[in-house]
């Protein structure tokens, strides 16, 4: 079995209100568990940054579905690679709201200007999400 990690960024659409977001999380957690997919979803009022990791076929199939989801648009693939280990093994889908991220974390990746996830390189995007998961460990624990 080939295991892959995929990272993409997208912009939320008007269809994605708080209730829709809760639905996404709920369905993600139950679907992903069944498909052996783990990952993290970072959300801000404007964008999503998500990492999916798991069996190649399952991740590819889910990504096709996610790309067609009207709750977001401008989906851009930032990173796709085969991996030996998971970085988010403990979470069927960890969830971090940008409001909970420390300003220092943003500064590391966005300089002094506004944080723009579309400007991240593949390596930066993965590092950013890994750093988030590590920093927000307490927050994410139990999810
Ligand atoms: C930003 C975003 C992230 C999503 N992440 C996942 C995910 O990790 N897993 C998942 O099953 N669905 C995810 N979805 C929802 C899918 O696009 C799709 O609606 C869902 O997989 C359909 O599930 P169902 O066939 O069980 O109804 C996401 C949607 C959005 C907008």
Describe what this molecule looks like in 3D.
By secondary structure, the chain is α+β, with helices and mostly antiparallel strands. It has one domain: 2-Layer Sandwich (Alpha-Beta Plaits), CATH 3.30.70.100. It is built from 5 helices and 5 strands, in the order E-H-E-E-H-E-E-H-H-H. It has helices spanning 18-35, 56-67, 103-110, 122-135, 137-140, and strands at residues 3-12, 38-43, 47-55, 72-82, 94-97. The protein has a 5-stranded mixed β-sheet with strand order 4-1-3-2-5, with helices on both faces. A hairpin with a 3-residue loop joins strand 2 and strand 3 (47-55). The longest helix is centred in the N-terminal third of the chain and has 18 residues, at 18-35. The chain is globular and about 40 Å long. The model has no long low-confidence stretch (mean pLDDT 88). It binds flavin mononucleotide (FMN).
Ordered list of secondary-structure elements with their pairings:
Layout: E1 3-12, H1 18-35, E2 38-43, E3 47-55, H2 56-67, E4 72-82, E5 94-97, H3 103-110, H4 122-135, H5 137-140
Parallel strand pairs: 2-5
Antiparallel strand pairs: 1-3, 1-4, 2-3
The structure holds flavin mononucleotide (FMN).
Flavin mononucleotide binds next to helix 1, strand 3 and helix 2.
